[in-house]
Structure formats: structure tokens, C-alpha cells
Amino acid sequence: MQVNLPLPQVSATDFGDDEAEMARYKEEGTARALALGNRGPARFGPDGQLDPEILDAYWKQGFYVFTNVVGEEERQDIERDIAEILDRAPVSPDSKVDKHGRPAMAHDCEGRAFRLTRPLADPLGGTATNESRHQVKMLEPDAPDGAPEWFMQVMLGPLQHSEACLRLHAHPLLMRITESINGPDFTPFNEGVWVKAPHLGASVAWHQDGWTHWDSPDLDAGTHGFNSMMQLYGCDAANGLWVVPGSHNMGKVDISTLMDETGSDRLPAGVPLICGPGDLAITNRQAVHGSFANTSDNIRVSLNSGFHRRKSVLDVTSGGIHNPVALYDDAYIRRRARLIMYAIDARRQRFPDETAYVYQPLADHADDYHWDEAAKADIHDYNLMDIGI
Ligand SMILES: O=C(O)CCC(=O)C(=O)O
């Protein structure tokens, strides 16, 4: 499909000695993924909640692919904003300027913004970064000819830089799916734009997201919430996220031993997210997941919004990965959730014929949240108040 993004022209790449095995793994993983029965359009019952069959499939596998959630017009808005994000990204991790020498996007932000990586590298695997979640390093293919030294992997806090991303955050289907899974008092926790450029995109080593509640007597399959991932162009086994089905229900998994037993980073039970443009995948944060270096010709752009159950985070002190350590009391959670309210109003202005979602925790104060110049100032550095557990 047509991609209108400023991307470097580089030579083709592959996994070298591992290429044949990787190709087989991707093919078999794709077949396994398509046989799981956890994909299709979002359907809701008369009570407004997700069809029980969908919920059962999500809770069984730990992920679900909702097809055709976001239409062409909205995807074009998003693509324009992603093009700007790429154009204005800093040229290296410590730089404050973009490739044109201008102040880079987010140069004035204190919160985390761009993460740049070396081409096809694995920056996290086997390191102590992010609570040592990424236990083992992935294969790192050789960088292609023509590759830049650094390229964007993810941008955090994107709702303050892209109105299209902000609007997507309150897409009525996404909101209703989230309500069905996390309850009507759900809370947002973190957003990111992931870009997996052809022959450049770095890997994300296998990991589970949660790091706080594993030993809690109340731990269940939904304790650490889920991530939603809208796929701008779709994704496949080469550029997409992989998940180990059912692993969200296994407590803390010893990924290092699993990989030792396997003898490679190709976990035998893993399956890729297979999505078309506008599909929205949800992935349980307790599931083992990761992605390989993208040696394919196709780009993946995922627009992530993560959500928690309120009871998992209320009055918990946590942080350190997404945000500075803080007590997530009622006032903190309400303030973080204002992004949903601004997103609902921004959506109403752009898509006036759509039925807007009513976010119950702040519904009584809806008039306080107009998407305007003051609101733009109000959300500067909003992700300093992410809610990581
Ligand atoms: O999209 C990816 O490749 C990685 C995303 C991920 O691991 C996460 O959001 O936790």
C-alpha cells in the first residue's frame, strides 16, 4: 500500500545464517496465529459490552485483533502527523535538533519523548533497563547500506504533538472495548507511536510489561491492564509484534530459561499479530511479547494507548519506567484521565456526526474539557504523569 512518509532509502537486509529458519518460523507462526479464533470486527451485545465470545477469546489467548476499526479518512490524518513526527525527530539520542537543523519536536519536553535506536539493533535485551524486563538479547542483523546512524523506534507522549493521535485515543470503538475489559472507570496509562521502518526497525526483546503486582494475592489475568495498538498500514510476522498465547495467565515467566531451552529467540509458541490497515490489536500486558528486527520491505506504524483497571492503580506508588515514581491517588488518576476528555472533544470537532463516547469518571465535568489553545498548553508534558505498574 502507498506510504507517504519520509523514510531513508537503504539496501535490503536479512538474518544472514538464520534467514532460512526465520522464514520458516514466520510462516508457521502466521498459520498458528490465524487459527486461534481471536480476530474479527468489534461486536457488542444489547448491554453495550463486547460480545462474550470475543471476551472469552481475549481472556484465553491474551490478545485480540479487531478488524477495520479506523477508516481511511482518519488514517490519512494520522499519516500526515506521523510524517511530521519523523521529519522533526532529533538526529541522535542526545540531540535537540532535527535533520534540518531546527529545534526537534519535543525538545522542550521534560517527559520521555523519542527513543532512537541503531538500525536493526536490540537496545534493551539482556540489560537492566526498565526493571530488567527484557531478559535476553535478540538477533541483530547487519545494518543495510545507506542506513542512518540512528532512527526513531518509538515516540512517547504523542498526544501533545499530534491532534490525530489525540483523537484516535478516544475512538468510540476503542473506548467501548476498553470499558468492557477494564470496567467503566478504566484509566489511561501511557501512549506511544512505534515505527518499524523497512530494513531499519529495531527489535524489542521478549518481555512482560507489568513489574509490580506479580506477588499480589489478588493477581489475575487482567491486573496489569492491556495495550491497544492501531495499525496504520497493517503488520505481519516480519514487522509486527509477537505474542505467546495464554502467557498472560502464567504469572511471571522465566523468559531466559525458555530461550535457553529453545536455543534461539524464536520462541516455539509465539505468534505474530496479523493486521490490515486500520485494525486494532489489544495485547494483555502480562503476556510475553516482543518483536524482531524488521528486515522486510514493509513499514509498521503502531499507535499505542494503554489502559488499566482503576482498582489496579488506585493508591499504588509506582513508576520509574514511564514516569517518575508517584502515588497514584484519586486526584492523580483524574488529572491523567483528562487526556480522554480532551480527546473526546477534539474528536467531536473533527467528526461531528459520530456518537461520542461518554467517559463516566469525568462525565459530570465534561464542560471543563474543551479542546482549544488552553488545553494544548494544559497537556504539555502530560506523560510525566503516566501510570506505570
Ligand atoms: O511494538 C513493538 O514492537 C513493541 C511494543 C511493546 O513491547 C510494548 O508496547 O510493550
Which structural traits does this protein have?
eight-stranded mixed β-sheet, 11 helices, 26% helix, four-stranded antiparallel β-sheet, binds 2-oxoglutaric acid, 389 residues
The major sheet is characterized as: 8 strands, mixed
Top-tier CATH class: Mainly Beta
> Ions, cofactors, ligands: which are bound?
2-oxoglutaric acid
Order of helices and strands: HEHEHEHEHHEEEEHEEEEHEEHHH
Here the CATH topology equals Jelly Rolls
Whole-number average pLDDT?
97
**Distance N terminus to C terminus?**
37 Å
Strands in their spatial order, largest beta sheet: 1-2-10-7-12-5-4-3
Number of strands: 14
How much strand? 15-25%
Total of domains: 1
CATH architecture field: Sandwich
Explain what this protein looks like in three dimensions.
- By secondary structure, this protein is of the alpha+beta class.
- The protein has one domain: Jelly Rolls (Sandwich), CATH 2.60.120.620.
- It has 11 helices and 14 strands.
- It binds 2-oxoglutaric acid (AKG).
- 2-oxoglutaric acid is lined by residues 194, 204, 209, 227, 241, 289, 291, 302, 304.
- The site of 2-oxoglutaric acid has 9 residues, from strand 11 and strand 12.
Gist?
With 389 residues, the protein is of the alpha+beta class. The protein is 26% helix and 16% strand.
SSE order and pairing:
Elements: H1 19-34, E1 39-40, H2 52-61, E2 63-66, H3 72-87, E3 114-117, H4 129-132, E4 151-156, H5 163-169, H6 172-182, E5 187-196, E6 204-207, E7 226-231, E8 242-243, H7 255-262, E9 271-272, E10 280-284, E11 289-291, E12 300-308, H8 310-313, E13 316-318, E14 326-328, H9 330-336, H10 338-350, H11 373-378
Parallel strand pairs: 1-2
Antiparallel strand pairs: 2-10, 3-4, 4-5, 5-12, 6-11, 7-10, 7-12, 8-9, 8-11, 13-14
Helix pairs in contact: 3-5, 5-10
This protein binds 2-oxoglutaric acid.
2-oxoglutaric acid binds at residues 194, 204, 209, 227, 241, 289, 291, 302, 304.
